[in-house]
Amino acid sequence: MEAGQAFLLFVIFLLAVFVxxxxxxAVRIVPQARAGIVERLGRYQRTLSPGLAxxxxxxxxxxxxxxxxxxxxxxxxxxxxxxxxLVVSIDTVVYYQVTDPKAATYxxxxxxxxxxxxxxxxxxxxIGGMDLERTLTSREEINSALRGVLDDATGKWGIRxxxxxxxxxxPPPSIQDSMEKQMRADRDKRAAILTAEGSRQSQILTAEGxxxxxxxxxxxxxxxxxxxxxxxxxxxxxKADGEAKAIGAVFNAIHQGKPDQKLLSYQYLQMMPEIAxxxxxxxxxVPSEIGAALEGLGQAAGKFGSTFPGSGFPGHGAEGDGDxxxxxxxxxxxxxxxxxxxxVHDAASDAAAEGEAAVTxxxxxxxxxxxxxxxxxxxxxxxxxxxxxxxxxxDPGGQGPGHPPEPPPVPRPPES
Length: 416
Hints:
The chain contains 10 helices and 9 strands. By secondary structure, it is an alpha+beta fold.
């Protein structure tokens, strides 16, 4: 009895364990972006979608879950020969996504390995038709070619290749050195070209600047010469006008002074010593006009002597007879001839003083006219007083302007 109860309890325990295992086998939870393949008795039954699913325990078998998300796989570097027989190593990265779990499970045994091998073969085909330069500069073209070939080949596998990227293209070290040298030479060439172009532009700009400077300098010199010529022209005109005015003033001053023959003769005799001055004058030539001057002076002396009786000069005799040998002395004991000589001397002195005064006045007026002409040429007016102040002329004798100094004495005539 007790043995039967124990066996019954064991059977109940086994049934409970079986039920629990059956329930565990029958209930499956599929995560999001996952897919489960169910096989019943070794044959494809259905595909489990995300969520809670119930299968027949011990009859249905759920295969490992298939990931439906986009996945990235990086393949190791692959040696590839280019069109110009250079071996380069290329790393590829493939972005793919499972779109059909059933095809990915039953159409290919290992779709990752299939994608890798297909990428290598397609890459070699694409790179084999390109040289090294084009390979290094045509990444986008290579990516597009690989993506097209892989997408067509993996479509029946239930896989979609979204992108294929070339991670690295590594040429051989010798080629890298050659490329670096070539790149350095190219950069040096471009640097030299740019330097030469800069020097050329600099020289062109410098030449243009010098040209403009020379043109402006020539224009300035031209204008300066024109203005200088105009200034010289105006200066010469003003100078000529001033000289004309000075000559007119001298002419007017001479005519206003009304010099007579006595004054001119006396001035002529005064200029004789000035003519003889100078160390270089070895020979003194007496002009022929000296006779006329002496004659004029003699006539002036004779005119003054004829007014007094008993003067004793030839041709101008005293009252009664022209003999001077028997003349009597006056009350003071002086001879009448001496008195006449004194009178002649006084008259000559007065005439010389008047002539000197007239000449000095004429000279002052000439100086004033010259100063006025010069001031007019400079653009200002000058009075005779200003001219005297500028020239520093003073009146040494205290007689005022126009009064000459004391004339030299006239030689007395010999006594009879």
